[in-house]
Amino acid sequence: MTTHIASRRGPKPNPLIKETLIKAGLNILHTEGYAAAGVQSIVENAGVPKGTFYNHFSSKELFSADVIDEYFALSEKRLISFLNKTDQPARARLASYFDDRIQALAAGGLLRGCLIGNLTAEVADHSELIREKLAEHMNSWSQYFADCIRAAQSAGEMRNTTDAQVLGRFILNGWEGALLRMRADKSIEPLLEFKMIIFGSLLV
């Protein structure tokens, strides 16, 4: 018996259009959230016909998974740019990263917070694909923190000998919680308190 595999109809996906859609989706999902981000608003923002979306993505869920990848790639690049400053002590590199994030959030009017944290709260219970994607990137993110903390411990920059993996996860969890409180209070204070406790009491 011969099995026939149906080929995708319509024009072949265009990588440039796909990239445009992902960038448009990143802005809309970060601003409006998953439920409110409709395909129509995404294609309008991207300046392409609605049918083009389905030529590149079979569902909004799969599209959102790619948007999460893009968001993390951009965030990761920023994080690495701070943690790779080997002319500074490891603990200072991590502190500088959070200073940069706090300044950027303040400049942006304390809006939106972290897309990964936002989608975890909104979608993780309803989409296994997106939950796994979010968990994957959170694990990578906390690993960067852990590696930096381990370097600080090895260099004698801090007395706290708690396992670096645990500290890395705790710091990420605390940061995401501070971002949620920032949005609820419309205040920068939760972020400043987070940094004060982390670098004044924990990483010492």
TrEMBL record:
It comes from Rouxiella silvae. Gene3D superfamilies: Tetracycline Repressor, domain 2. The keyword Transcription applies. Residues 15-75 form the HTH tetR-type domain. It comes from the Bacteria. Keywords: DNA-binding, Transcription, Transcription regulation. InterPro entries: Homeodomain-like_sf, HTH_TetR, Tet_transcr_reg_TetR-rel_C_sf, TetR_C. Residues 38-57 bind DNA. One of its GO terms (molecular function) is DNA binding. This is TetR family transcriptional regulator.
